[in-house]
């Protein structure tokens, strides 16, 4: 093919030239046209550049490659296009990872409505940018091809746009961890027929869940936790037959748990804790044949646990604590062969612990504390070979003594506070593997035995509110993993050297807390008490109501983690050391009812974290230093030499 010119002599020459031009045209067309098809569509490019203009701070340069002189399909990070140059993916999350890197950054700015012009967009991920503010543009409802929308973990405000009801293709929607408010539009769920995951947690969304949520037949994951949702959980929730995960915790839901919940046979995890739910646990719970984790705690649920609960074939954790559940524990609970954790504390359960609990071969935690259970503890519990934590505290069990068969249990945490135990500590404890032992508020008597040194796994020991007497044996020093010690309200006597200089296994075994109040320990406190290595990490030290006498050791100021020190009514004399002001974390200082004298050090009264301070009933004098902490007048009374706010002003000499 060539062009024929009619001008005589030039015909042959121009024919040849035309042939060459045509060849060049075809060559360049073949060479460049495919590239033009893959190039970023101008409308999309302009829309993305307009979005970038709304970004005010980009320290990690997430959007650096987005420039007007480059091809957005080829050169822009986070952009993917289809074969026609239309943008289908915009992915610029603030938290991402690869084989050998992790990016965790923040971006400031607002969401531009211009992204609504990306008419072929299927994925929009601007999650975890932390500082995106403002509202979600309602124009985003025009993105009719959008399948994945991730705007979570920002600072977005306003309500969920009503226009989202037009996002018919949406499969995953995450708006979690923002500051969104208002109610969910009542008809927003009408078009979400393909939605499989919905995340709205960590906002301030209020009002009810629309009953139209029952239209989300493809939904597998629903997270609405940490909001302000109220009213009843809709009965239509039972239509979500594909649901595997539901978290409605930490809201203000009231009313009953809907009976329809039993239709969710694929449900694996159900959290509705920390609401205001009332009424019974529905017997339809037995229909949750896939359920593994169930948390109904911190509500106002009442009535008995339905016997049908014994029909949950896969259940591992039942957390029903802090409700008003009552009646006897159903024996059918013993059928739950897969159960690993039972948390039923702080309810109103009565009667005996069912002997069928001995069949719970997988059980690791049994917490029945703070109920009204009575009668003997069934010896069948000895079969619980995997049991690690047993807490029966604050039940009127009337034990009189710890059953001998307990020594066959290999528990790490044994908590039997206020269960009626009397007499001396059983010697079999010497060979136990307990790391936590709480026998407080019982009628235990006698001496602290020397064999306690064999309880080398102990990290927490609470023997408070008993009738122990005697001094602390030197063997106590060998509790090298002990970090929390509570012996308050006994009749212990002698000095504190074995406690303050015990061994430790760095980094374990340093004290976190010591409470020895209301005993008969004698001092004086060793001047180097605050320099002992085992005391270096202590947070709380309570020695009140002991006849210690002597001075406050200056070295206590070296306890840089100390948050509270209680030395009330201990017969201490001398001054308040200004060095105590070096313990910068101190929130509580109680030094009342002693013989302390001199001035109150400015360094102590002006500790930045100070919340509670009491030096009443001493012999302190001088002007109370100016201070920012809100300390009542009563905290300074009984010191006739003190003056200045909040006491009457000082008299000028």
UniProtKB/TrEMBL annotation:
Residue ranges of every copy of the Disease resistance R13L4/SHOC-2-like LRR domain listed in the record: 292-566
Positions of the Leucine-rich repeat-containing N-terminal plant-type domain: 44-82
Subcellular location: Cell membrane
Family annotation (InterPro entries): Leu-rich_rpt, Leu-rich_rpt_typical-subtyp, LRR_dom_sf, LRR_N_plant-typ, LRR_R13L4/SHOC2-like
Gene3D superfamilies cross-referenced by the UniProt entry: Ribonuclease Inhibitor (3.80.10.10)
Membrane topology label: Single-pass type I membrane protein
GO biological process, one term: defense response
One annotated GO molecular function: kinase activity
GO CC entries: plasma membrane
DNA-binding as UniProt keyword: no
Keyword annotations: Cell membrane, Glycoprotein, Leucine-rich repeat, Membrane, Receptor, Repeat, Signal, Transmembrane, Transmembrane helix
Pfam families registered for this protein in UniProt: LRR_14, LRR_8, LRRNT_2
Family from the record: Belongs to the RLP family.
Protein name from the UniProt record: Leucine-rich repeat receptor-like protein kinase
């Amino acid at each position: 093919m060539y062009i024929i010119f009619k001008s005589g002599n030039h015909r042959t020459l121009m024919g040849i030239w035309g042939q060459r031009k045509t060849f060049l045209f075809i060559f360049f067309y073949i060479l460049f046209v495919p590239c033009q098809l893959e190039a970023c569509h101008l409308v999309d490019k302009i829309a993305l550049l307009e979005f970038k203009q709304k970004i005010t701070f980009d320290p990690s340069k997430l959007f650096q490659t987005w420039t007007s002189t480059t091809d957005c399909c080829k050169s822009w990070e986070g952009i993917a296009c289809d074969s026609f140059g239309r943008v289908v993916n915009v992915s610029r999350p603030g938290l991402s990872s690869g084989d050998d890197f992790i990016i965790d950054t923040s971006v400031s700015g607002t969401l531009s409505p211009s992204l609504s012009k990306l008419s072929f967009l299927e994925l929009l991920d601007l999650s975890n940018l932390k500082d995106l503010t403002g509202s979600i543009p309602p124009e985003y409802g025009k993105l009719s091809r959008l399948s994945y929308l991730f705007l979570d973990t920002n600072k977005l405000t306003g309500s969920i746009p009503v226009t989202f009801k037009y996002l018919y293709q949406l499969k995953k929607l995450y708006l979690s961890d923002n500051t969104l408010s208002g109610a969910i539009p009542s008809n927003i769920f009408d078009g979400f027929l393909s939605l499989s995951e919905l995340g709205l947690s960590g906002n301030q969304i209020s009002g009810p869940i629309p009953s139209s949520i029952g239209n989300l037949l493809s939904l597998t994951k629903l997270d609405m936790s940490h909001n302000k949702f109220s009213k009843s959980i809709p009965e239509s929730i039972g239509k979500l037959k594909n649901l595997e995960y539901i978290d409605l915790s930490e809201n203000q839901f009231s009313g009953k748990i809907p009976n329809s919940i039993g239709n969710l046979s694929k449900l694996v995890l159900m959290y509705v804790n920390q609401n205001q739910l009332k009424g019974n646990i529905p017997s339809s719970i037995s229909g949750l044949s896939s359920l593994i984790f169930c948390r109904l705690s911190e509500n106002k649920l009442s009535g008995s646990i339905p016997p049908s609960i014994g029909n949950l074939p896969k259940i591992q954790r039942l957390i029903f604590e802090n409700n008003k559940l009552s009646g006897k524990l159903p024996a059918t609970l013993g059928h739950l062969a897969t159960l690993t954790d039972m948390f039923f504390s702080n309810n109103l359960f009565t009667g005996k612990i069912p002997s069928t609990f001995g069949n719970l071969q997988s059980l690791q935690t049994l917490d029945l504390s703070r109920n009204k259970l009575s009668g003997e503890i069934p010896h069948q519990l000895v079969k619980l070979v995997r049991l690690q934590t047993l807490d029966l505290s604050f039940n009127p069990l009337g034990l009189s003594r710890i059953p001998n068969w307990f020594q066959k249990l290999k528990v790490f945490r044994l908590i039997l506070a206020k269960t009626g135990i009397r007499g001396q500590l059983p010697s079999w404890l010497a060979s136990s593997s307990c790391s936590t032992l709480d026998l407080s508020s019982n009628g235990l008597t006698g001496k602290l035995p020397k064999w306690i040194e064999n309880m080398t796994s102990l990290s927490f020991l609470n023997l408070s509110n008993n009738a122990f007497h005697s001094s602390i044996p030197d063997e106590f020093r060998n509790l090298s993993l002990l970090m929390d010690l509570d012996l308050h309200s006994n009749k212990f006597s002698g000095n504190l050297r074995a406690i303050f200089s015990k061994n430790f296994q760095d980094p374990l075994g340093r004290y976190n807390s010591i409470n020895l109040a209301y005993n008969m320990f004698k001092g004086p406190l060793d001047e180097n008490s605050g320099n002992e290595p085992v005391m270096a990490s202590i947070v709380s030290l309570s020695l009140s109501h002991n006849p210690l006498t002597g001075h406050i050791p200056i070295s206590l100021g070296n306890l840089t983690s100390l948050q509270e020190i209680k030395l009330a009514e201990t017969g201490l004399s001398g001054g308040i050391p200004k060095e105590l002001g070096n313990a910068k974390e101190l929130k509580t200082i109680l030094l009342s009812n002693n013989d302390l004298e001199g001035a109150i050090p400015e360094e102590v009264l002006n500790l930045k974290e100070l919340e509670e301070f009491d030096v009443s009933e001493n012999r302190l004098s001088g002007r109370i230093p100016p201070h920012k902490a809100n300390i009542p007048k009563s905290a300074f009374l009984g010191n006739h030499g003190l003056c200045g706010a909040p006491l009457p002003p000082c008299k000028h000499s």
